[in-house]
Amino acid sequence: MKNKAGEFYFMYHPQFKVCIFLIFLAAIIPFQTSAQKGKAFTLEINGLIQDDDNKRSLEGVVVKLTLANVQTVQTATTTGNGKFKFILDPNTDYLITASKIGYTGKIISISTKDVDVNSATLDYYKFPISIGIFKEVEGLDVSVLKKPIGNIFYNQTSREFDYTADKFLREDMEKMLKEMEKKKKEEEERKRREAEEARKKAKEDAKAKAEAEAAARKKAEEDARNQKKNDLKAKADAEAEQKRRLEAEEQAKKDALADAKKRAEEDAKAKSQREADEKAALKKAAEEEAKASAAAQAEAELKKREEAKAKAEKEAQDRAEAKEAELARKRAEAEARKQASEEAKKIYVKNIEYETEDGQNYFIYKTIITNTKDEKTVYKRISYNWGGVYFKRDNDDITQDSFIQDLKNVVLKTD
Q: With b meaning 16 or more CB within 10 Å and e meaning fewer, what string describes 236-272?
């Protein structure tokens, strides 16, 4: 009996948008296996994680197998061969999530429900999948990959596990592929400009270095010429200095006689100056005493103003603290009102029942709510084998958000 394997790659070429998109979602690869027949069964997922850009096996990818309620059941980290393996139980909905730092991860849903368990079916299924993940592109919107890009399920017609892709993702995926190609080209252009600027700078640096070396050689030659001139000048200066000393000695004798006369005149003048300085010192002392008195008075006045300022600042601080306390009280009241509003949204019911319905190509999960007036409301989650999911309240179509919000606010009354 045959099983089929899903292969999930991220690839793009402007001339083959639709074709590449289908490859990205799922490439179905035939797989032959054999097993003993029986009523119970196990599904073995054999996975391979690859880099979308070069198709090389990726090491260090964290692969998680979780239930529909996001509870982690199994975890694996790939080694150099990029492989992982999970064993799945019957009658359960799973998610496989592949993630690695620096890469954009992907999600696949798996359902082991609705498997024909009779003497004509297998008791051990193997399903190989290859998941391609790509390196993160700065600024690229990958929100389309936050939900499963495909579903592995049991095909009632072929009586084997099969794979289907969500055809409604096509438009969003094509937009993301175009945007990624655009951003990659922008990054290549940025790197090209940086390389060009680096080459230009290296050329300018080489030119500046050559000019600096030429200037250094020119300066060395100029310094040598200047040194020769300085040596000749030093010799002439020494001869001139010898002549100047002889003239200075003669002049010193004349100056000594003039200095003796000048000192006598300066002594008389100094005596007169000392007497004038003493009078000035007495006057200055009186003025400084008056200044000291005025400074003391100014200091007292300054201290008085600082005390008044400190008092005003304390009063301002007290007012600020009172205002903060009032704001805290108002925030607490707002939080209490919010909690009361959340409580008011709750819908207390008398009973909650769950039923399921299997169809040819669909599965219905029913939630039947009986309110306190014995009025019933039936919520339905309808999953088609091709991957579509719809939600109803009684016979009316509703959105997934309305479906989740309604059931979230329902509380079973226990008193």
A: eeeeeeeeeeeeeeeeeeeeeeeeeeeeeeeeeeeee
> Architecture of domain 2-165 in CATH?
Sandwich (2.60)
Q: Is the pLDDT at 340 greater than 60, yes or no? A: yes
Q: 137 and 41 in contact (C-beta within 8 Å)?
A: no
Q: pLDDT per residue over 54-83, tens digit each?
A: 899 999 999 999 997 789 999 999 999 999
CA-wise closest residue to 90 among 69, 113, 67: 113
Main-chain phi, psi angles of 45, to 5 degrees: -100, 120
Whether the Cβ atoms of residue 353 and residue 371 lie closer than 8 Å to each other: no
What is the distance between the alpha carbons of residues 394 and 368, in angstroms, rounded to a whole number? Answer: 9
Confidence (pTM): 0.42
End-to-end CA distance of the chain: 55
Q: Which two tokens stand for residue 51?
A: 């880099």
pLDDT of residue 185: 83
pLDDT tens digits for 213-271?
989 998 888 898 899 889 888 888 988 998 898 889 889 888 888 888 888 888 888 88
**Residue 28 confidence (pLDDT) above 50:** no
Q: Domain residue spans in the chain?
A: 2-165, 346-412
